[in-house]
Amino acid sequence: MDDEEIFTASFPAGRKQIFVDVKENNIGKYLKIKERGDSQTNSILIPGGSIVQLRNALDEAVQALGLDSGKGGGGGKRVAGNQCVCHVGNLSWETTGDTLRELFSGYGEVVKAEVQMSRAGRSQGWGLVEFASAAEVKYAIEQCDGLDFDGREIRVRADKGRVTKAAAPAKTQRNDADKVVDPTKIFVMNLSFDATEAELRAHCSSVGEVASVELLTRGKNQRPSGSAVVEYRYSEAAAAAVQALEGTELDGRDLRVRAYFSN
User: Fold this and answer.
1) Which family, according to UniProt (predicted)?
2) In this structure, is residue 72 part of a structural domain?
3) pTM of the model
4) 4-25 pLDDT, tens per residue?
5) Are both 98 and 30 inside the same structural domain?
């Protein structure tokens, strides 16, 4: 009886084509990697018990090369991209799911934010952010592509789907908590890195009484992130501030103001 095929994929490598097959026979499962090109075919057989070690080695290689494993040609079988999900690339190794959620919460209701991790628990430099609507994804892409975040110029695009694997999915950092609007707070973005709490408080007080101002920071060195959370004494003032302060100038920067989402 022929060996049973469990998974198959192929991708180009220069002038050659690489085929990856997972099969099973009466002895057990195994991985077959086959190279075709220039009328020559070479194959490598890897026992099922060693596939995990191979995967770990490849994850380490991807990270060492600084590559985005979510990109590239015909890898494995793909699932269709979710219209409510955006792909965020070129992330700092310090970025986490929580800080990613914090950033994108300023552009819409974030359902889920995750940074993709290797089997060794290291960031792969990219992540996915799911919004409540496709319109919010479009807005986030327009506003955040090329944005300086954690010292890196991030690349944001619509999610085109991810490669599915026969093995268990990679570890992720995530925070799946449902988010709701905090009625007394606003999220302020595009602040000058030199902005102070006193300056921002004075600016926002034109709409109503400000209870507190928190300038947000990034990374281990607590660098300014260019964003802040402002809390008003009354919810009516916070609601009015979203429209009244949007696009206003502070320290030579046009502010971006959104409702603040919290647990």
Assistant:
1) Belongs to the PUR DNA-binding protein family.
2) no
3) 0.41
4) 777 777 777 777 778 888 888 8
5) no
Say which CATH number the domain at 93 has.
Answer: 3.30.70.330
How many angstroms separate the most distant Cα atoms in the chain? Answer: 79
Burial class (CB in 10 A: 0-12, 13-18, 19+), 238: buried
CA–CA gap between residue 9 and residue 18 (Å, rounded): 8
Cβ contact 19:8 at 8 Å: yes
Residues forming beta bridges with residue 181, ordered by sequence position: 261
Q: Which regions of 168-263 does DSSP assign to beta strands (E)?
A: 172-175, 180-189, 210-218, 223-232, 249-250, 253-254, 256-262
Residue 102 has pLDDT above 90, yes or no: no
55: domain range? 4-65
pLDDT digits over 250-261, tens only?
998 888 888 887
Number of H helices, E strands in the chain: 5, 19
Mark whether 8 and 37 lie in a shared domain.
Answer: yes
244/233 Cα distance (integer angstroms): 17
